[in-house]
Amino acid sequence: MGEVDPAFIQDPEHRPKLSIIEAQGIPLIDLSPLNAADSISDPKAIEGLVREIGNACKDWGFFQVINHGVPLHKREKIETAARKFFAQPLEEKRKIRRDEKFVVGYFDTEHTKNVRDWKEVFDFLVEEPTLVPASPEPEDKEETQWINKWPENPPELREVFEDYSQEVEQLSLKLMGLIALSLGLPEDRFKSCFKDQTSFIRLNHYPPCPSPQLALGVGRHKDGGALTVLAQDEVGGLEVKRKTDGEWIRVKPTPNAYIINVGDIIQVWSNDKYESVEHRVMVNSEKERFSVPFFFNPAHYTQVKPLEELTNKQNPAKYRPYSWGKFLTHRRLTNFKKLKAENLQIYHFRVSE
Ligand SMILES: O=C(O)CCC(=O)C(=O)O
Ligand SMILES: [Fe+2]
Known about the structure:
It is a single chain. By secondary structure, the chain is an alpha+beta fold. It has one domain (6-130, 150-301): Jelly Rolls (Sandwich). It has seven helices and 18 strands. The strands form five sheets. An eight-stranded mixed sheet has the order 1-2-14-11-16-9-6-3. The protein has a four-stranded antiparallel sheet with strand order 10-15-12-13, with no helix packed on it. The longest helix has 26 residues, at 157-182. Fe (ii) ion binds next to loops. It holds the Pfam family DIOX_N. It comes from Rubus argutus.
């Protein structure tokens, strides 16, 4: 990636401001009550945690966690492997390029809202194989399997990835338990939805950009899945749209913390009590940046709809049910193309009021 190609240039209203507002207020939550051996005998600590998580989901849709239980060395290993992978020549990386048949792998021409992102990515599925619908067509009942493509280099990537994904999956399940409790539901309310998960991990590399005021590493978007657990390095660049005033707020890197955000599925399950919030990534002219999001997604056959326990006459369901698998395959296929229109979003399933 050399000079800025017009494909990367954002419309003026979406260009980043170079004066940054750093996050004061994106909650930092200490998960240590979960790890304490006597947590059962200390329900007060868990209650406090549940309240903090609920408030963060409601007010921000984003929070950071510390003392989360994911061993630091496992995170460091995947970050090192990502650096090694992206340092290879483009021809090497393109050997395992994502295409319409192999939907995971390396990709350097992703578009968000039809503007090209200043980044390259590598996606891995958590379940191998991952079962999904064969096509986004609603009448087509056929299923297919997605499998991973592993690069030759670095050779340890597969093992490092498998080790890491188990840890973030455990953390995600714990967080879903806390989120369920915060909605007044049983802790294991969401557990079965993730049995045949369609989760994936993405390695993101944002090279230095000569015009960081014109382009974005990732354009503004919401995450389509249930929950995102993101590791960012010390460079920083993630910005979150503050719900109170629509201002873009930078998430300050906190060593060894994870950034958690509510995805579209939790928004629908909670019938808009919790909102999937827009975010984007700024790039800079000097430093490259790496990040590793884990997208926690349910089984493809999940019909996403507002939970019955959370809806009633006064608070009727705001969304029609939709198939997560069809939503996912639609998104994956349209990601290859620069579309004329915006791709599929949950508001397309909104019940008109
Ligand atoms: O790199 C980041 O900080 C966030 C990336 C992101 O939002 C995404 O990949 O969905
Ligand atoms: Fe995102």
